[in-house]
Amino acid sequence: MKQYGKRYLLFLIVLLGALSAFGPFVTDFYLPVMPSMATVFSTSASIVQLGLAASMIGLAVGQLIFGPLSDKWGRRPVLLASMALFTVSALVCLFSPTIEFFNVCRFLQGLGGAGGIVLSRSIATDCWSGRELAKSLTIISAINGVAPVAAPVIGGFTGQYTGWKGIFIILLGLGVVLSLMCLWFRESVAVEKRIEGSWKKVAQSFFRLFRNRYFNICLAIYGFGYCVLFGYLSSASFIVQNHFGFNEIQFSLIFAFNAFGSIIGSVLALKFKEMKNAAFFAMTGIFLAAGLQFAFVFIADNFLIYETLTFLMLFFLGFMFPSVTSLSMEEGKEAVGSSSAILGTVGYFSGGVISPLVGLGDIFITSALVIFLFSIGGAIAGFVMHRRPLLKS
Fold it and tell me: N or C: which end of the chain has fewer CB within 10 A?
């Protein structure tokens, strides 16, 4: 680990946790108002969900851009540029005259937020390694875990009294605050460790990662996990509010309770001596919870059953994220920014593809089916990792 003072290390952990929370804040913050936005813009639930998909695609594409750029130019200038893009796009969102304009702004907002997400992993890998990296990522994940708890609760209360624009005023303020915090960040990657030469060398280091079979298994687990997560995220507000009849604030509190399951899981992941075992445990648990949830859709239309299995699913997802992230970043140490970019892009691109699908037909049934199908893929990938731990190339 690099030699930093205790005060700066504390600042760094808080900053990285906040940057990694861009994903939940960009996606979860306005979940409670999605049903009402369909009414405000006189459109369908599926079109409103495209805004969620657009932000996730932005989060995916942005990481592919900012990750490799940071390997060549350093973390600090790229981080400041991405924060500026996020802040400006949040401001423009407030003046959306149509849902189509709003969805484009959401893409740009995701693009800017992606810089914070990809660099939070890259900076952590610059500063720590091995089990210390896993510990730091767990702490960051725990801080990040507060975001899905706080975002829908704040979003629910804000939306109840100010409408959807109040939510984006808060996102604008968040962008300004984090931009100012980033001014105190010290460059974490030395000049001699950056990728020098033409962009061809950057591209070569990027694509070399795809020849690492163990890294690809990590990607598969991460991608399937994100499919499950965003299958839940994009359907939860419609199921809890429209299907089960809860209001925006009640949904926010239910959503926050479920997010605590993810926080608990991320902390308990460190109890495993080997992170690959934590990943296998996580994907097996997700498969079982998702399978039971899909079965109960046809057996009993009951909120308590839906909620219990959803909580368990998020609990196991909490195990998955820090364990698979630390394994992936260790494998990709030769090009940290690119490794982080690929990992994040796979996650958010998966989410962007899944989000519109769960709104087709009866969302209660479709979402359960989509989540279950992708949990099968995750369980298979977890099993391959568990059985073949020496697969590194």
Answer: C
20, 120 in Cβ contact below 8 A? yes
Angular region, 186: left φ>0, alpha ψ -120 to 50, beta rest:
beta
pLDDT in tens, 66-120: 988 888 889 999 999 999 999 999 999 888 888 889 999 999 999 999 999 889 8
> How far apart, in Å, are the Cα atoms of 364 and each of 22, 167, 314?
28, 27, 18
Closest C-alpha among 329, 319, 324, 343 to residue 263? 319
DSSP 360: S
Q: Whole-angstrom Cα distance, residue 37 to residue 159? A: 10
pLDDT tens digits along 191-239: 877 877 666 776 777 778 888 888 899 999 999 998 998 899 888 888 9
Three-point CA angle 393, 20, 322, nearest 5°: 45
Residue with tokens 């070569």: 204
Confidence of residue 311 (pLDDT cuts 50, 70, 90): very high
Q: How confident is the model at residue 393 (pLDDT cuts 50, 70, 90)?
A: very low
For residue 76, the 8-state DSSP code is H
Contact 342, 202 (CB under 8 A): no
Give the pTM: 0.76
Q: Helix axis angle, 45-73 relative to 213-237, nearest 10°?
A: 150
Please provide the size of the chain in residues.
393
pLDDT tops 60 at residue 241: yes
Smallest Cα–Cα separation from 83: which of 60, 111, 102? Answer: 111
User: What would the two tokens of residue 218 be?
Assistant: 């990590």
User: Do residues 269 and 275 make contact, with C-beta atoms less than 8 angstroms apart?
Assistant: yes
70 residue type, one letter: S
> In 243-256, which positions are buried (b, 16+ CB within 10 angstroms) versus exposed (e)?
ebebebbebbebbb
Taking a C-beta distance cutoff of 8 angstroms, is the pair 256, 269 a contact? Answer: no
CA distance 347 to 361: 25
DSSP 185: P
Going from the C-alpha of 249 to that of each of 34, 290, 313, the distances in angstroms are 13, 26, 22
Read off φ and ψ for residue 274, nearest 5 degrees.
-115, 130
Which residue matches tokens 């992170």?
275
Say how far apart CA 173 and CA 345 lie, in whole Å: 26
